[in-house]
Amino acid sequence: MSKSVFYHAGCPVCISAEHDIIELIGKDNVDIVHFGEDNSRINEAENAGVKSVPALVTPNGNVLHINFGASMEAVKG
Amino acid sequence: MSKSVFYHAGCPVCISAEHDIIELIGKDNVDIVHFGEDNSRINEAENAGVKSVPALVTPNGNVLHINFGASMEAVKG
Questions:
Q1: Of A4, B10, B24, B67, which one's alpha carbon is 20 to 30 angstroms from that of A60?
Q2: What is the ipTM of this complex?
């Protein structure tokens, strides 16, 4: 099984959700992408269907938008 | 570790998220509560901080609102 990918932008809601996701599914099962550290992956996230962060893209490609930290527009701004 | 609780209301967004959550964390690690089958647990969910469904309440009590299926008001209506 390929990994899930958790996209976030460092906002408090994001960090809280990151901790929860790691606790729930295990840190070996998820790639964490922080747009503040690697904004080159914003396009990848949008192509996957990510509309806001934090969001988890599952191994089968579904997007789970978790709570609401920031829109992708805000992330790019 | 106590289980997570996944609250939903049978909407398409809920069912899709239910499948994803079960795949991600394992069905033995989550209690599934369907308000259409057991509306006595709506109060419990609201007390836990659930504002909309589907939502996952983690073992440490954090609420992860996942995508958006329906508000709790709609669930009660």
A1: B10
A2: 0.91
Each residue's pLDDT tens digit, B21-76: 999 999 999 999 999 999 999 999 999 999 999 999 999 999 999 999 999 999 99
Interface of B with A in 13-72 (CB under 8 A): 16-17, 20, 23-25, 29, 56, 58-60, 62-68
Burial class (CB in 10 A: 0-12, 13-18, 19+), B73: exposed
Q: Where are the domains of chain A?
A: 4-76
Q: Which chain B residue has the Cα nearest residue A57? A: B20
Say whether domain A4-76 belongs to CATH 3.30.70.580: no
How many Å apart are CA A74 and CA B43, to the nearest integer? 35
Task: Nearest chain B residue to A22 by CA: give it.
Answer: B25
